[in-house]
Structure to design on (641 residues):
């Protein structure tokens, strides 16, 4: 009896935690379909009008485009550098290996504000102006650790003798990389790329510091719009972003799982 | 009765006699920092031969194999394959077959694509590749697995595919790095026979690395026993086994009794020993080629050459009474630890019906010509 009571309490508590975590998100999603002018309850009807408004909002569309390009470039550059760095650190004896590895992972540990200011000051000292390239560089710096962690973990599990076998059969080191190592690494490369994209797409702190004037990403655009008023459009934008940042990694994970199942783990 | 240049079905990837290669190592040495993994080693492997590098882990056998493969660069010395120096030839241009302990199949490719991998870099056409893959699968007796993935095969099957993949390219030399060690005991013995059969059939010069003495004895034309980066002894399996050239070899191969003795006389035909508890023993001179003069020596007697019996033994043998201390019953044979005066010796004898009991008095006898004498 007592035990039944305990379990009920635990269930109830768990339920409360979930409510606390997801209710705000649910409210945003729900209100984005609200027909009323005001982003508040009670809802006056179901409507897609805010999504339509969103699609007509030039500033948001521009921000969306910027975010997509920025995210895609960040993912591309981060995975390329990440794969190369992981290969060097795992497959070759590099002097100061541990130090390099730590430095590459460090951006995760440093508070983002500190990193953001540091990069800005550094470039000021070199009298380099803020630019899209700088913004991209910043995003690469703090998405790189995630890519490296994911790729390294996978690379460790790819046996060296598989690559040696390929070379003994006549494949040059570069041919071996493209025909053996990279296909086996692909799930991790994709996962790393998606991580990078999502983190970049989602980032606001660094972006606020680094973005050149006139350039807005989706998060900074939302931030700017919130300063004026809470428009229901923002709820719609929030819903789109949730769909994107939750959906993409899930999709990537599913693809990665399929692929690693095919390549034997 | 297939010789190294054996002939078989016409389509199999057979090598012709003129293609057989030799491997020659001249004073090769490998250092890792201050650690010397292989000390100035010279070795010539006969064409078409099956040479085994045998030794405990850390003896330098795998390092030597990896130097032949081109996966490691020797610190000094020269490696020749087929009379050509290959020190500066990278692995992918050496035309070698390499088989690893853990198979190292490409997990993302089918069995057929695994086998075809090396052919791709040799400009072999599509239909010819298909034919060669089929022949290779038949050679390893797995004709029906072409479309499967490696993970769908058992360990033994995977190793056969790895072997097929390495021989389909018709390598100059086949290098086997403990290929049977990951398999379980029964399968290992089957694969041992199978591997030897395939090697004889295609006649490729083969270097086999193992720490397992029974594999080495069963498969090799020549055994190279290594210890601490040096060659201890090389020769045909029965020569290495029957006439160990060093105490290490005597201990590593089979079970041996090693008794400290003194050589009191030596001439052209015999060596006279004086050993505690065993008395005076006259041994044929060819059983101790390394013993030059009188002085302390070591007497090596294989455990299975020491016969225990309850009756008085026949003439021509040396016999002492001894007491059985421990019996390690192994079914068709037993390993006895016996006390002979101050000496503790071991004997491995076939069992007729019952092993000798512990504590029983027996006569332990051996022929002087079964002993080996080594310098102390």
């Amino acid at each position: 009896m007592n035990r039944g009571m305990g379990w009920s309490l635990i269930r109830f508590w768990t339920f409360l935690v979930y409510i606390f975590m997801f209710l705000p998100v649910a409210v945003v999603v729900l209100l984005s379909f609200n027909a009323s002018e005001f982003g508040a309850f009670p809802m006056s009807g179901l409507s897609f009008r805010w999504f339509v408004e969103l699609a007509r909002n030039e500033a948001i569309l521009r921000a969306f485009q910027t975010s997509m390009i920025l995210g895609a470039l960040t993912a591309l550059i981060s995975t390329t550098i990440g794969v190369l760095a992981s290969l060097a650190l795992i497959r070759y004896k590099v002097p100061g290996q541990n130090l390099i590895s730590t430095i590459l992972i460090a951006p995760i540990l440093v508070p983002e504000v500190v990193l953001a200011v540091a990069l800005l000051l550094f470039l000021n000292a070199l009298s380099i102006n803020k630019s899209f390239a700088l913004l991209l560089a910043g995003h690469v710096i703090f998405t790189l650790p995630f890519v490296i962690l994911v790729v390294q973990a996978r690379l460790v599990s790819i046996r060296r003798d598989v690559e040696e076998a390929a070379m003994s059969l006549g494949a040059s080191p570069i041919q071996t990389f493209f025909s053996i190592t990279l296909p086996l690494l692909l799930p991790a490369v994709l996962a790393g790329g998606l991580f990078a994209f999502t983190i970049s797409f989602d980032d606001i702190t660094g972006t606020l510091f680094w973005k050149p004037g006139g350039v807005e990403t989706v998060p900074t655009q939302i931030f700017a719009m919130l300063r004026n008023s809470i428009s229901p459009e923002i709820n719609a934008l929030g819903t789109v972003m949730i769909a994107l940042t939750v959906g993409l990694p899930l999709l990537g994970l599913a693809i990665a799982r399929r692929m690693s199942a095919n390549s034997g783990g | 009765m297939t010789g190294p240049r054996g002939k078989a079905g016409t389509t199999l990837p057979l090598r012709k006699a003129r293609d057989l290669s030799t491997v020659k190592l001249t004073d090769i040495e490998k250092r890792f920092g201050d650690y010397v993994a292989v000390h100035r080693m010279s070795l010539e492997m006969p064409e078409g031969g099956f040479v085994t590098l045998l030794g405990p882990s850390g003896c330098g056998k795998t390092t030597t194999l990896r130097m032949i493969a081109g996966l490691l660069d020797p610190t000094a010395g020269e490696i020749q394959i087929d009379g050509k120096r290959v020190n500066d030839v990278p692995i992918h241009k050496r035309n070698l077959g390499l088989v690893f302990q853990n198979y190292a199949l490409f997990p993302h490719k089918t069995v057929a694509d695994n086998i075809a991998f090396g052919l791709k870099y040799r400009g072999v056409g599509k239909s010819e590749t298909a034919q060669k893959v089929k022949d290779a699968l038949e050679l390893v007796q797995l004709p029906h697995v072409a479309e499967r993935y490696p993970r769908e095969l058992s360990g033994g099957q995977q190793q056969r595919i790895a072997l097929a993949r390495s021989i389909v390219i018709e390598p100059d030399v086949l290098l086997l790095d403990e290929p049977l060690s990951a398999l379980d005991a029964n399968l290992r013995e089957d694969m041992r026979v199978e591997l030897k059969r395939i090697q004889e059939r295609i006649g490729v010069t083969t270097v086999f690395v193992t720490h397992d003495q029974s594999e080495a004895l069963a498969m090799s034309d020549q055994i190279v026993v290594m210890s601490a980066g040096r060659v201890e002894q090389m020769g045909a399996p029965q020569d290495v086994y029957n006439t160990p050239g060093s105490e290490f070899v005597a201990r590593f191969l089979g079970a041996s009794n090693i008794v400290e003795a003194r050589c009191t006389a030596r001439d052209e035909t015999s060596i006279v020993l004086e050993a505690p508890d065993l008395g005076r023993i006259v041994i044929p001179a060819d059983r101790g080629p390394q013993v030059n003069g009188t002085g302390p020596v070591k007497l090596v007697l294989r455990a299975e050459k020491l016969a225990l019996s309850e009756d008085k033994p026949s003439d021509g043998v040396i016999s002492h009474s001894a007491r059985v201390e421990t019996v390690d019953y192994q079914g068709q044979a037993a390993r006895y630890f016996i006390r002979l005066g101050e000496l503790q010796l071991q004997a491995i004898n076939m069992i007729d019906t019952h092993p000798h009991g512990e504590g029983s008095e027996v006569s332990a006898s051996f022929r002087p010509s079964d002993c080996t004498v080594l310098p102390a």
